[in-house]
Amino acid sequence: MSGSFYYAHVESVRCGSDSVGMVDVSDKPEILREAVAVGLIRLRRETVRLIQEEKVIKGDPLHTAEVAGIMAAKKTSELIPHCHPLPLTSVNVDANLIGDSSVQVRSTVKTQARTGVEMEALTATVVGLLTIWDMVKQYEKDAEGQYPVTVIENIRVEKKVKEDETSERKH
Amino acid sequence: MSGSFYYAHVESVRCGSDSVGMVDVSDKPEILREAVAVGLIRLRRETVRLIQEEKVIKGDPLHTAEVAGIMAAKKTSELIPHCHPLPLTSVNVDANLIGDSSVQVRSTVKTQARTGVEMEALTATVVGLLTIWDMVKQYEKDAEGQYPVTVIENIRVEKKVKEDETSERKH
Amino acid sequence: MSGSFYYAHVESVRCGSDSVGMVDVSDKPEILREAVAVGLIRLRRETVRLIQEEKVIKGDPLHTAEVAGIMAAKKTSELIPHCHPLPLTSVNVDANLIGDSSVQVRSTVKTQARTGVEMEALTATVVGLLTIWDMVKQYEKDAEGQYPVTVIENIRVEKKVKEDETSERKH
Amino acid sequence: MSGSFYYAHVESVRCGSDSVGMVDVSDKPEILREAVAVGLIRLRRETVRLIQEEKVIKGDPLHTAEVAGIMAAKKTSELIPHCHPLPLTSVNVDANLIGDSSVQVRSTVKTQARTGVEMEALTATVVGLLTIWDMVKQYEKDAEGQYPVTVIENIRVEKKVKEDETSERKH
Amino acid sequence: MSGSFYYAHVESVRCGSDSVGMVDVSDKPEILREAVAVGLIRLRRETVRLIQEEKVIKGDPLHTAEVAGIMAAKKTSELIPHCHPLPLTSVNVDANLIGDSSVQVRSTVKTQARTGVEMEALTATVVGLLTIWDMVKQYEKDAEGQYPVTVIENIRVEKKVKEDETSERKH
Amino acid sequence: MSGSFYYAHVESVRCGSDSVGMVDVSDKPEILREAVAVGLIRLRRETVRLIQEEKVIKGDPLHTAEVAGIMAAKKTSELIPHCHPLPLTSVNVDANLIGDSSVQVRSTVKTQARTGVEMEALTATVVGLLTIWDMVKQYEKDAEGQYPVTVIENIRVEKKVKEDETSERKH
C-alpha cells in the first residue's frame, strides 16, 4: 500500500469549474422556517366537471394529489441535487378546483432547521399537479393521443417565513 | 406575467374535505422517544425445522429479516404518507423461532425528536416478517402454489415511552 | 496493477454458509401472474365510527391507505432483499370497514414477468394497514399513550394465479 | 386460525368510492413509446447573465438540471401513485437559456412498454426546472427573502408517439 | 394561453455541450446478460480475527454485506445517472475472508435486457465493501479516530457475458 | 384477541447470534462532524484524453460524477444497513484528472449530529467513481467487451474531525 497517496501531490489538470457541492449550513441556527408554494393545472371543462361529480374512473384526483404531494415533499433532497435533507415538522397540501377549468395546488411546509423549505413546498406542489394530470389523462387526450389543452402553470413561492434568529434560544 | 395570481381571489369550489397534511409538530420538544413493536408469522413445522437446521436454500431467514427490518425502519416516512422524517438514533430488530411453527419479530426504535416512533417500530416488524415469508416461500406453497398455512399475525405496539418533557433542558 | 488478482487463488476461509442471492429466474417465461393478499386492523369502535362519519382529523384513512398501498407495491423489491424488481402492470388496493371495529385491506397485483407477485400484494396490504394505524393514532392511544386495542392481523395470500405457461407464445 | 376469513362474508360498509388502483395494462402490447415534455423558468436578467458567464457559485445550473432531470425520470412511478414502473430505454434532458430571462427544459423519454411515458417526460422536466431554481436561489431572492420574479411556467407535453401496434411482431 | 410556445422558435444561446442523456437502447435485443465484479477491503488482522470468531458486536459483517450488496444492485439506476433501470433476474453476492487481513466481495448479476449489468455488479460489490467497513468501524479506528489501515481496493469487472444475439428468438 | 401475547413467555430457541441493530447514539451530543474520503479510478490514456478534450459522448464525466456523488451521500443510510440517517449540512464532491490515466474523487461531508459521517463521504466517493466508469464505458471495453484496464482503487478516509464535545453548549 505504500505510495497509495502519491497522487495527492500531483497537480490537478481539471479544466473548468471547481468542486461542486451543497451550501454549507453547519453554522446556521436551527429555527422555525416555513414556505408556501402554489401552482395551477389547466384542464378541459369536461374534465373538471368529472372531478366535481366524482366520476373520474381512477379515483379522486384532488385527494390523491394531496397525498402524493405530501410524500413528494419528503423526497425533495433525493430529487434536487443541492438540497439539504431536512426534518420536516409539517407538510400540508391542498388541491382545489378554481373556476371551471383549473385545479390549484397549494403546499405549506415547515421545519426547525438550518435552511429554508421553499424547494420542499415547490416539490410538493409540482408533484401534486403532475398527479392530477396523471389521474385525468384519459379525458385530456385528443384523438391523436396528444394534450392540446393540458398545461401546468404559475408555479410560485407565495411566501417564505423564518423565525427571528435572535429568538432561537427558546428551542 | 401580470394577472398570474388572479385565481387566488376566486372562490374555491372544492366539494368535500379540507386540505390534507402531516400533524404540525414544530412546537413540540425534541425528547428521547422509544417504541417496541412485535409480530408473528406462522409457518409449517417442516419450514421451521429447515430454519433451525440452517438448510434454507436462500440463506438465513432470521438474519436477513433483521437486516431488512432495520433498513425498513429508516424508510417509514417514505411509505406512510403522514409520517414525519425522523433522525433515528437506534434501531434493533430481533427475529426468533417461537415454538415449532412460528417466527416472532420484535423491533425497538429510538429517536431524539418531536414525535414518536411507533410507526417505525411497526414498519421494521412487518418488513421483517414479510422477509421471512419471502425467504421460505418455496417450502410454504402447496401443490397448487397456494399458501394454506402461512399467515402474519398479532402485530402490536408493545410499549411506547417518552422521556419526561420537563427533562428536556438537559439536551 | 500486476498481481491485483492474486487473491483469487487463495483459499477462502469463510466459516458458514455459501453466497447469498436472489433465486435465478433468467430462464423462466414471462407470463401473466396475479396475487391477492388481505389483512385486517382492529380498532376501537369509536374510531371506526369517526372513519364512517368522515371526522378523522388527518383526512380519509381508507383512501389514504389505498394510495399508500399502491405506492408500496412498487417498493417491494426495495424493502425485501431477495425480491426481483418487476414491471407491475396493475395494482389495486381496497380498504373497507368490516363490522364495527375493523378495517380490511385487500390488494391485487398483476405483472407479466418471470416470477410471482405475492410479496407485492402482501406489501401493499401491510403498508395500507400501517397507514390506517397512523391516520387514527390519536384515537387509539389510551391515557398512557399505549395501544391496548389496536392490532394488525390475519395477513394472508388469498389467491395466486399464473397463466398457463404453455400459453406464453401469444405474448 | 380457523375462522380467520369470517369477515370475507360480512357486508362492507364503505361509504363512497370503490377501490383505487393503477389502470390494468397487462394485455397491452410492449411497443416503442416516446414522449417529449417542455417547460420554462423565468429568472431575473442578472441571474441569466450569471449562468451565461458561468459564475453561479453552486456550479453549472444547466448541466446539474439535466442530470437531475434524467434521474427524476427514473423516479416517476415512485412519485406519482398510479404510474406503472417502466423499463425506460432512453432519457434525454436539455436545459437551455431562452432570451435574456428564461431557461427552458425539454425532456425526451422512450420505452418499450405497455403504457406511455408522458408522465416520465413531465417529471424530468419539472425536476430539471426546480433544480435550476435551487441552483440560483440566492440571486432570485429580494431583501425580504421572497421571490418576486421567479416562476415556473408552460409545462406541456409537446409530443407523444407510439409505434404502430401492428408492427409489434418484430420485437 | 396563446403564444405559450413562442420560445420554441427562439434561438437557443446555450454555451457548451449538447443535451445530456442515457444511451438509447430501444432497438437492442432483450438477451441474457451477466456480469461479475470483485473488490477487496483491507482490515487489521485483529479485525479479521474478530470476524472469523463471530465476535463483531454489530453482527455478522459478511452476511450483512451480502444482503446490503443484493439490495444495492437493485438501486444502481437510482445512484448512477445514466444507468437504465433493468429487471434483474438474479443477484448473488459473496463476501469472504481472504488471507489474514482482507475481505473480498464478489457479485454476480444477470438480466434479460437491452443493456449489460456491469454497473449493477460493481454497485453490489462496493456497497458490500462499504458495509464491511461500517460493521467493523470501531475496531479499525486508531486513538485519534482515524483509519490508518482500512482501504477498499481492486474493484474490477471480472467478466461480462452476453448471450449470442442471434439466439434471441428462443425467448 | 385474548392470549395474543402468549408467545412472549415462551422460550426462544434461536440458535446463534443475538439481535441485530444500529449502535444506539441517543445519548451522544449533537456536534459538528466532518469527514473527507478519496478514491481513484484508473482509465486508458485515450479515455482520459477524451475527458480532457470534452469529447465524451455521454456528457462531462467529472461534473456528472460530482452531482451523483452529492446525491449518493444523502442515500448512505438507505444503502448501508447500520448507518444512522443524518441531517447533512454540507456535501462537497470534487472529481479531478490525476496524471494521464486516472480520475480522483474527493468528498467532504459535514453534519451537526450524534455520529460521524465517514460512511457518507465514502459513499459519495465510490458512487462518483462508479459514475465515471459508467460515463466512459464504451472507451474502456476491449473487443470482447471486457475491461482490461479499468479499476477503482485506494478508497480511504483521509480525515475525520469532530468538534470538541465540551464546546457543544454553544449550539
Question: What is the fold's blueprint, element by element?
Answer:
The structure is a homohexamer of 171-residue chains.
Chain A: E1 20-21, E2 31-42, H1 45-52, H2 61-73, H3 76-79, E3 88-98, E4 102-113, H4 118-140, E5 151-162
Antiparallel strand pairs in A: 2-4, 2-5, 3-4
Structural description of this entry:
The structure is a homohexamer of 171-residue chains. By secondary structure, chain A is of the alpha+beta class. Chain A has one domain: Alpha-Beta Plaits, CATH 3.30.70.640. The first copy, chain A, contains four helices and five strands. In chain A, strands 3-4-2-5 form a four-stranded antiparallel sheet, covered by helices on one side. In chain A, strand 3 and strand 4 form a beta hairpin. The N terminus of chain A is likely disordered. Chains in contact: A-B, A-C, A-D, A-E, A-F, B-C, B-D, B-E, B-F, C-D, C-E, C-F, D-E, D-F, E-F. Chains D and F meet through helix 2 of D and helix 2 of F.
